[in-house]
């Protein structure tokens, strides 16, 4: 099955700063992929590369079987809603739909108008007068009515209140179920990702910390609590993601596909938020170590 996004050693450099380095990943089609990481991790850079808004400095990226931004046919395959939920403040809701129809050969006008009616948006209302949630819904409507194979959403609900976020995400899930498109959704809010996503990418310090299907990731990560011990004594197939110690106790998050047989450990499951935070902390620490090493070498 062809990946909806495939990156190999992908990198993007702005002057002297690398915003993304050695990014290798593959996203299968039909998934809602959550993209998470701290500010400056490279999330928006990756999404702009996927949408064809940027070109790579190193490596390659393929989206929906082609090079992003390579021509009208390729552009038609990808819908992109940028971080500021872009709309034209001076245009009405209807103007946005007419513009979408003119710019997109696969435009589904019936879908767009059904959504606008269901959402209770006034077609004659200028977009600049809409609430934040309404603007996000209008931008999402335009992205969906384009009928893309892949819809890319960069922090589309970051500025919304919890109720508005829930409504936007619920509408997104209904659209995914109805039209079978693939989605990449960037967000700082792990609870939102947990509600709608089945695939995950964690970016930290401009690199991929972990990627995979969420159910599989949660099934192969565990929290271990037991008497204080040196993590170097663990079996080779138990990979430590995070570790904390008190005078008498050690708490670990580990990755393993094998059963945990040591009776000294109390084993429990790991939630998505704890998993994400563990990898963010691990990768951030490793990144700091790499930077310190480079400073010494210079």
Automatic annotation (TrEMBL):
Domain ABC transporter: 5-230
UniProt superkingdom: Bacteria
UniProt keyword Zinc-finger present: no
A GO term for molecular function: ATP binding
Alphabetical UniProt keywords: ATP-binding, Nucleotide-binding, Transport
InterPro entries reported in the protein's UniProt record: AAA+_ATPase, ABC_transporter-like_ATP-bd, ABC_Transporter_VariousFunc
Alphabetized Pfam families for the sequence: ABC_tran
Name of the protein in its database record: ABC transporter ATP-binding protein
Organism encoding this protein: Nonomuraea guangzhouensis
């Amino acid at each position: 099955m062809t990946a909806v996004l495939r990156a190999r050693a992908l990198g993007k450099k702005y002057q002297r700063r690398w915003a993304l380095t050695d990014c290798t990943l593959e996203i299968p089609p039909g998934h809602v992929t959550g993209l998470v990481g701290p500010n400056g991790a490279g999330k928006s850079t990756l999404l702009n590369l996927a949408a064809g808004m940027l070109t790579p400095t190193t490596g390659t990226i393929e989206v929906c079987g082609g090079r992003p931004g390579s021509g009208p046919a390729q552009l038609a395959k990808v819908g992109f809603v940028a971080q500021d939920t872009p709309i034209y403040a001076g245009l009405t809701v209807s103007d946005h739909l007419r513009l979408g129809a003119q710019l997109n050969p696969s435009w589904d006008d019936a879908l767009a108008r059904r959504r606008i009616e269901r959402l209770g948006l006034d077609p004659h209302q200028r977009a600049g007068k809409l609430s934040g949630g309404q603007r996000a819904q209008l931008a999402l409507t335009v992205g969906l009515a384009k009928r893309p194979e892949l819809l890319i959403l960069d922090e589309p609900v970051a500025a919304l209140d919890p109720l508005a976020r829930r409504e936007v995400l619920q509408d997104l899930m209904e659209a995914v179920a109805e039209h079978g498109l693939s989605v990449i959704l960037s967000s700082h809010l792990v609870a939102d990702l947990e509600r709608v996503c089945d695939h995950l990418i964690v970016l930290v310090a401009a690199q991929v910390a972990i990627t995979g299907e969420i159910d599989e990731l949660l099934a192969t990560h565990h929290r271990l609590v037991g008497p204080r011990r040196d993590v170097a004594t663990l079996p080779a197939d138990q990979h430590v993601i995070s570790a904390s110690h008190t005078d008498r106790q050690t708490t670990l998050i580990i990755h393993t596909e094998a059963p945990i047989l040591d009776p000294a450990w109390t084993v429990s499951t790991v939630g998505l938020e704890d998993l994400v935070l563990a990898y963010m902390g691990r990768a951030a620490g490793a990144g700091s170590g790499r930077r310190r090493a480079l400073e010494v070498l210079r």
